[in-house]
Amino acid sequence: MVTGFPTVLAGFDWFKAGMSIPQILQSEFISVFILLLYSIPAVYLGAKSGQTYTLLSRSIFGRWGSYLVSFNLLCIFIAWYGLMAVFLCEGLKGLFPIPVSSIILSTVLAIVMTFNNFFGFTGVANFARYVAAPIMILWIGITFVKCIFACPASILVEPAHLPLHHAFVIVSSYTIGYAVWGNEADYWRYGKPRIANSIIPLVVALVIGQTIFPVTGWLMAHLSGVTDYSAATNLMVRYAFGGWSIVPALVLIITYTAVNDSELYGAINAIENVKVFPRKLVVFFLTFACAGTAACLSQCGHAMEWVASLNCIFLPTVTVIMMVEWFILNRWFATTEKGYLRAYTWSEVPSIQWPATIALILGCSTGLLTSGIIPGTETFRFGLFSLNAWVVSALSYVMLRLWLYSLRK
Question: Structure pTM?
Answer without folding.
Answer: 0.88
